[in-house]
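cron nightly-structures :: item 1 of 1
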Amino acid sequence: NSEVYREQKTIHDAAVDRIVESVEKQTNEVQDQGHLFASIAWTVLGLSALAFVISTVMGARVGRRWVDTEFTRLSAAVDRADQVAIGVVIGSSRGLCVLDAETGQASFVNERMSELLRLPVEELKTGEFLKDALAHQEVDSVLAPLFDGRLKEYGWEELRNHPQEPKLWLYWKLQPISQPSPEGSSMDILVQVLDITERKEREERLRAELAAKAVLIKVMWALREDRMELHAQPIVELATGAVSHSELLIRSRDRDGSLIPPGDFLPQAEESGLIGQIDRWVIDRAGALARAGTRVSVNISAASVTDPAILDQVKALLQDPGLAPSDMVFEITETGTIENLDKARQFALAVADLGSSVALDDFGTGHAGFAYLKNFPAKWLKIDIEYVKNALTDARDQQVISATVALADTFGAWTVAEGIEDKETLELVKKLGVTHAQGYYLGRPSPITVPDARPEGTQQPPNPSHSD
């Protein structure tokens, strides 16, 4: 009848309201556990609906007893869920705190918040940290509408980059967590701080990869449209002050005429395999310069040293009757040579047999020694700029240079000091016995025109001689 119906409906509504209220409270405190409490809520709704049916069919007394039993059981389940929620809040991977609407202070702060912000919990409870975090905004323009419910959520990313600590990216999220009363009282604010460093680093890597691929595509088109160019930097023989030969340096010209520096595309070219095409392009133009009587030094990548096709190209070039093989030097990095020693040695022997020579570039970075040079026919050791730039004030760098000179003398090789930028450093390396030098003080890289053939009557510069 209608009286029993109303009584059971009241019991039903009360049970549902009490448990759902508890569930919603926990859901507001820990959003990550929302699915757990939602499932409890739906369970309560289903059971209370069943209680209504039981009460209607079997009577109010049976219905009340059944509801009381189920409510006791479900309350215990919710209590257990409360404990889970508390554990999740305390041990959460995100920093959490509740900003009290009345005092502006934090009524709760978990340990993770203290770890992320590197501030003690007691200091965080004052709430001042949030004002510092919002320094880039008008504080009242953010907090006031959050406290009164006009703003539902506010978030931002922050980079914390302290000199003595790893870079840390944080995401801040502020949101009201209680409903304002009819009297218009303010709402508390839940402050969440997440460590998003890993995600930001992935984004940075992705942006870098995309940028590198974009540059690589530009270089591919530059090769196809013949917009690559060579710049030459002189290498000076210190005994005479004359230019011994010039190192050829690759550059790429964009369609808008801007120059793409080699550091922006050569690493990507090596990773992608495009470096082989670039090396072949450079070798071909270097041959044209050598045929014109210009002594040049050509950089060969580690990948090309192991490429039989590149070696065949070099052999064909050095066997050209219009070219003096001694006018060409092939530079290989020391580290690349060590990684591919057998192939690099075959390359160097083939080049030497045809009258040319090989230089070990960046010497000193790969830690090559006597045993290494004994089995590798290098005629030039280029001392890395790392040991030259501070040689005036660093005695250890001077010792490395002197040791390299002694090593070169033992095997009848020349030395080149890279990165000479002032007269004093030039005089020092000369005093230490270095035979050749290269750097901005002696000459910056500049564009060089590649001729089609040797001009008539061109005189070849003399071959560099070993300075005793």
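cron nightly-structures :: done
The longest helix spans residues 60-90.
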